[in-house]
Design brief:
The protein contains 10 helices and 8 strands. It has a domain of 173 residues: TIM Barrel, CATH 3.20.20.100. The chain is an alpha/beta fold and 267 residues long. The structure holds NADP nicotinamide-adenine-dinucleotide phosphate.
Amino acid sequence: MSELPSLGMGTFRLEGDVAIESVKQALESGYRHIDTAQIYGNELEVGIAIEQSGVPREELFITTKVWLDNLTQDAFTSSVEDSLNKLRVESVDLLLLHWPEKDGRVSMETYLKLLAQCQQKGLTKHIGVSNFTIKQLDNAIDILGEGKIYTNQIEVHPYLQNTAVIEHCKQRGITVTGYMPLAVGKVMSDGVLIKIAERYNATPAQIAIAWQLKQGLATIPSSTKRKNLDANLEALKITLTDEDMREISALEANERIANPEFAPNWD
Ligand SMILES: NC(=O)c1ccc[n+]([C@@H]2O[C@H](COP(=O)([O-])OP(=O)(O)OC[C@H]3O[C@@H](n4cnc5c(N)ncnc54)[C@H](OP(=O)(O)O)[C@@H]3O)[C@@H](O)[C@H]2O)c1
């Protein structure tokens, strides 16, 4: 599939049979974007699930991400080939740099050019980045040129709305993919979201997803349960009002969940 579907399935933390079964269930439910990463250690299971699902390859949008250890000239391309072997595909639809390199071990120019080479070699249809700040995005565009970076995958949920980066990505023509859209389950007990959900006969998770969709973001909630996978997909049918959006905006708390020691200096 050539376009990034607005709602996909995340696979962080899913391992072994749970990963296989969850991805198969998601594909059965109608998900067509599966988001994995080298570091998740489940590309093999995602590949098995895709094969067993019987969904034709051209109907799928598969994303994987190159881990920090593999950003060097020696490791980059072979790590991507290894990912493709595990995923049992000839190419992915989107190849992301999982995190920007922090300690300067490899220059951004080196690893971005390696990423672009993977695209030229046909190992991926699109290329993109993840966890890039505004400054890093601008540097990346300077290196690769306009129109090359397809998406910036960043943490977005009602408690970390990331509006400055989203606005900048819009200005620069880059799609934002919001990760951890449910704040890893926290949204379920949020009084404001519960109240809005009641108005739509929906769940807080569905409202959190609909809030991302209304902003024009792609989003990738994760679940191991068929009921939740189905419900999350149903969020595509919910259109929030401007008033709902304002109420959710007020939940901003700068509460970042994914913040490892190698994270960049966030905007
Ligand atoms: N680029 C990056 O650096 C980065 C970092 C983090 C995550 N990600 C991507 O973003 C994806 C999503 O993030 P995430 O998985 O960490 O968190 P998330 O999607 O915000 O939350 C997942 C959690 O919510 C629960 N859940 C899902 N749907 C639910 C529903 N309808 N009702 C109640 N609970 C529900 C799941 O439990 P059940 O299994 O019980 O449903 C799971 O515990 C990841 O899987 C990964 O693909 C990317």
